From TrEMBL:
The lineage of its organism: Bacteria, Pseudomonadati, Bacteroidota, Cytophagia, Cytophagales. Residues 1-29 form the signal peptide. It comes from the Bacteria. Keywords: Signal. The keyword Signal applies. InterPro entries: DUF6340 (IPR045921). This is Tetratricopeptide repeat protein. The keyword Signal applies. Pfam families: DUF6340 (PF19867).
Amino acid sequence: MLYFCRFLKRLPVCLLLLGLVFSGCSKHGYVNLDYPLPPQVYLPEGVKTIALVNRSLTRPEEKQGQVLEAIVTGEISGSDRLASDESLKGVFDRINGYRDIQAVIPPQTRLYGTGTRETPELLDWELVRNICDASNADALLVLETFDSNSDVLLSTVANRVTAALGNNAPIHAVPNQIRVNVLAFWRLYDPVSKTIIDQHQAKSFLTFNGVGGSNLTIPPPEALHNTAYEAGRNYIERFLPGHYTVKRDLYKKGKGSSKQAFKAAFRSSEVANWQGAMDGWSAILAQASRKNAGKACLNIAVAHEVLGNTDLALEWAKKSYEVYGNKLGRDYTKVLLHRRSLE
């Protein structure tokens, strides 16, 4: 948590993805903000280079008897051998270069495993050390198992249209939506402490339009490789910060003498000129009615949060309610207090 708090505080404002401020007939506009979430798993401090190894393969002589399973599950026989490498490529492309983290392919990039969904025993730590030393890596990420299959997204449905021959028997239509599934099990080895940093099994899937005739629907040629690639990217996301989206309401209209000034300030916020918008709302405070002043304070609070200053946002949200009785300011204050407690 300490690491994430430091990460959050040094996050540049430009990395907070801002949604457009929507206007319309409502008295409120809003802005969407994306704030970071901590990663599910933290890499140890010293891990900067990760070697990638595929252990999901099996020796050719051990593959006898697996053809039937491949037919039953919808797997294209032999395709897992190539597709499993795509999972490593997905990891490589997603993590390589992220915050000085390097993914490398060691000289010994393939090891034999079970070739099934059965999880193999841990690698010998001397072997882990040798692979890491050969590639100057701090940790070893191993794709321990990889298995794929495909299934029709919906079961065969009956089309109740009368057959051309005039009988009432339903015509069975084969859906052309195919879902390709990949089940992968990963382990991340630390050769220094001889511990497993992470081990995780996850199922990934993508949906494709099937190809083939009316009696046979199969996935397109690229389906398995694309799904395997996404499985690798999805796994390594466990070590990367995510984000959550929040919505902040603000007022776009005022009344009386402040009406035009409110509109002008709101237009500035629509084009992300938040400093200009704050200048406009601040000017309103000097001559605005109590109600308009509360609205202006609330908007200034939102602008400060957009610009990355939670403390100032909290001050203005409190002022909106405590001084001017704006109920939206009261609710916003509670939200900001909760957010600050997490930082």
